[in-house]
């Protein structure tokens, strides 16, 4: 289903000017030449193309946001060393936060790179079914890990802030919050990927 | 691409013996001259009923298991008081574990009761669309909470077990493990509910 759209998309565009958006070019072509009925099937397919396009862009936007929040969490935690007893790497929960931030960075970075590459070149690196599986399970597992890491670091931070509120605890709180934001958005992305997976498999 | 492969797979197997798999039975039906057509629509509907039945039973089994593990986690944590410094309610993470275990107990208990009630009487308490939404979001949110609570309690337990390994820390570890099991199973249940939601909405 998925791979059959690019060839049929290419067919009607030999006379098209090198315009900006594909969908609009397609529209003007189907409107102008044919006085007979505009073809319900064609509009249905085009509406579906546009729907898939929105899904793709939404998925890319979600992952780019997660990349941003993971990067912030990583930077804030990695630079959080202020002398003995106030280094993040003396506590396993803060090392866990850092590790999961790096993992999330790698995952969302690779996925965003792949999506941008596919959008610009139009070539698919991974085929449809496997891609949907990787998308869904990748998003869901990284979301679980982000939540787990952020949750594990909260009690110790609370305990430290009861004693003294300084730059160390503030940076901890900031890093943990960024990781929670990343979790929320990646959870939404996982729902989107799951929707695409079920819809594709049982179309 | 994907939907075109099953038919081409069916073509080379018309002389196959009546095997155990459904697909092959289907094949032999279409191949034989079939004077009395056994009603393809009826078998299709019946297969779908059976499929839905399996989904329902699987969903009930998952939730009953989560109920069991939450109950264990709740009992082990609630009885875990062994004198000053060794009471679970002196630490916020262990109170969080207890609170989420109770929440999960309530949710899975109510859902299991509803499912058993519907199976025995055949009446639906909540209508289809709303039910699928409640199922999916309920499962997913409770799964996230279970993971969050279990994760938050792990670092403090580790730290205590470095000092001394006694009945208090053992009970903590047991309760946290039960909550992790509950999370795993409820995560699977959430995937099942999500599948049912997408399939039902866009059938």
Automatic annotation (TrEMBL), chains A, B:
Does the keyword field hold Endoplasmic reticulum?
no
- Give one Pfam family: CASP_dom
Note the coiled coil stretches, chain numbering.
none
> Which residues span the membrane?
60-79, 94-110, 131-151, 171-192
Where can this protein be found? Answer: Cell membrane
- Keyword Repeat in annotation: no
Among InterPro entries, the record links this protein to:
CASP_dom (IPR006702)
Q: State where it is primarily located.
A: membrane
Question: Which superkingdom, per the lineage?
Answer: Eukaryota
Q: Which UniProt keywords apply?
A: Cell membrane, Membrane, Transmembrane, Transmembrane helix
Tell me a GO cellular component: plasma membrane
Q: How does it sit in the membrane?
A: Multi-pass membrane protein
Q: Where is the Casparian strip membrane protein domain?
A: 55-184
Question: What quaternary arrangement does the UniProt entry report?
Answer: Homodimer and heterodimers.
Family, per entry? Belongs to the Casparian strip membrane proteins (CASP) family.
Q: What is this protein called?
A: CASP-like protein
Organism encoding this protein: Tagetes erecta
């Amino acid at each position: 289903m998925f791979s059959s759209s690019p060839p049929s998309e290419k067919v009607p565009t030999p006379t098209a000017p090198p315009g900006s958006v594909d969908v609009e070019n397609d529209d003007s072509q189907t409107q102008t030449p044919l006085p007979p009925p505009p073809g319900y099937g064609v509009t249905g397919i085009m509406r579906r193309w546009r729907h898939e396009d929105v899904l793709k862009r939404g998925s890319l936007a979600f992952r780019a946001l997660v990349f941003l929040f993971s990067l912030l969490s990583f930077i804030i935690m990695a630079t959080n060393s202020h002398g003995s007893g106030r280094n993040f790497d003396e506590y396993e929960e803060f090392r866990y936060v850092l590790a999961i931030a790096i993992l999330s960075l790698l995952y969302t970075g690779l996925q965003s790179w792949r999506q941008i590459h596919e959008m610009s070149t139009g070539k698919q690196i991974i085929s449809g079914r496997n891609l949907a599986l990787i998308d869904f399970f990748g998003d869901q597992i990284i979301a679980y890990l982000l939540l787990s890491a952020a949750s594990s670091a909260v009690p110790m931070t609370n305990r430290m802030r009861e004693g003294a509120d300084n730059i160390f605890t503030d940076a901890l709180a900031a890093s943990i919050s960024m990781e929670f934001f990343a979790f929320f958005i990646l959870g939404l992305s996982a729902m989107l990927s799951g929707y695409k997976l079920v819809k594709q498999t049982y179309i």
